[in-house]
Amino acid sequence: MSRVIETLHLDNVIANHSRDMRGRVAAVTGTTSGTGYVCARELAKRGATVLLLNRRSSRSESSLKSLQSEVPSGTFVAVTCDLQDFASVREAAAEINANYNRLDVLCNNAGVMALRDQATIDGYDVQMQTNCISHFLLTKELFPLLMESDDARIVNHSSMARIGGPLEAEYFGRNGGNLGGDGTEEENERITGPRWARYHQTKLANCAFTYGLKERFDGKGIKNVKALLAHPGLSMTSLQLTTAEDGGMDAESPFMNNAQSAEDGATGIIRCCMDPEAKSGDFYGPPQWRGFPDLIEPEDYLGNAQNIATNWDGCEAAVGAFEI
After folding, report:
1. 37 is catalytic
2. Residues 85, 93: contact at Cβ < 8 Å?
3. What is the pLDDT of residue 248?
4. Which residues have a Cβ under 8 Å from the Cβ of 264 and sit 6 or more positions away?
5. Selection from 43, 144, 136 nearest residue 94 by Cα
6. Residue 320 backbone class (left: φ over 0; alpha: ψ -120 to 50; beta: rest)
7. Whole-angstrom Cα distance, residue 249 to residue 258?
């Protein structure tokens, strides 16, 4: 993971696919490293007030100092938000609602990958709650603020792991620790088995949430809030290190030779957050593992009725109704 990878696309995206963000407020989850850190940095460079939603830790404190050092003119506000604890998510949303009268960007970036079959304190699978259900809850709680913007963006982060079978309701239930186990060493080396099945469910759920939002916005004639989707390809971030430490993959495997830099991995969500041409339902990312974050055509099943319903119903059962 020490290999240096040249960044090829970030400057192009900032120069040609971003806009002045002065006077705008953006909330980004998971900014201690990787794509979230890069996105927060670039939003601040363009003038946004950036709310950094992370668990309280030495990493979050260190990353805040680093962002302030890289962007001395930037405005960064740390908001404690543990996506593995619904109470913490609600507290974070309450803090934002109390301190701001408008939110222009909510970037649901944070994620974990291929962790052990374990439950959060709320009883849900750690991957599903972190990657999906808590972001659904955060979006629900902040939606009134987003409606106050003239051009709000809800940005969800998927991955190549979205490709596969349909969403299944059991992954959204209070079944943490009982969803297939941890897989064999051989399965994990081949990036298969139950850890990766759970991860696939979360990344497909991010897509279904996006298109479920768009469907509801279109039905209600809401034009000032956009639902957008991105994927990072394969980017060199701490996501692989965390997974490797948990036994889910080999971070030094030849597979990682396909990776692009964290900066280029962040360009999809950056376009979603700042591209003036972005339209609700747009999906930005490289054609596969690496490359420029083009507007890509989503696979048909990402937003089919079954997947949208499974995601929406499962999330509402966990955190309450999300009325739009």
Report:
1. no
2. no
3. 52
4. 7, 8, 9, 10, 233, 235, 286, 290
5. 144
6. left
7. 15
Residue 247, phi-psi category: left (phi > 0), alpha (psi -120 to 50), beta (remainder): left
**Which residues, in sequence order, are CB contacts of 319 under 8 Å at separation 6+?**
86, 133, 136, 137, 140
Residue 92: its pLDDT value, please?
A: 98
CB distance 53 to 106 below 8 Å: no
Q: Is 4 exposed, middle or buried (0-12, 13-18, 19+ CB in 10 A)?
A: exposed
Other Cβ atoms less than 10 A from the Cβ of 69: the count is 9
Evaluate whether 214 touches 139 at the Cβ level (below 8 Å).
Answer: no
**Which pLDDT score, from 0 to 100, does residue 4 have?**
77
Q: Are 63 and 70 spatial neighbours (Cβ–Cβ below 8 Å)?
A: no
Q: What are the structure tokens assigned to 103, written together?
A: 């939110």
**Residue 241, amino acid:** L
Cβ partners under 8 Å of residue 296, min gap 6 = 283, 284, 285, 287
- CA 169 from centre of chain: 21
Q: Where are the beta strands (DSSP E) in the chain?
A: 25-29, 49-54, 75-80, 105-108, 152-157, 225-230, 283-285, 294-295
Distance CA 283, CA 271 (A): 10
CA-to-CA distance for 186 and 158, rounded, in angstroms?
25
Determine which one of 37, 199, 211, 284 is catalytic.
Answer: 199
Q: What is the dihedral of CA 208, 212, 214, 216, to 10 degrees?
A: 180
Domain 10-318 indexed as CATH 3.40.50.720: yes
Residues of the chain with pLDDT under 50: 1, 240-244
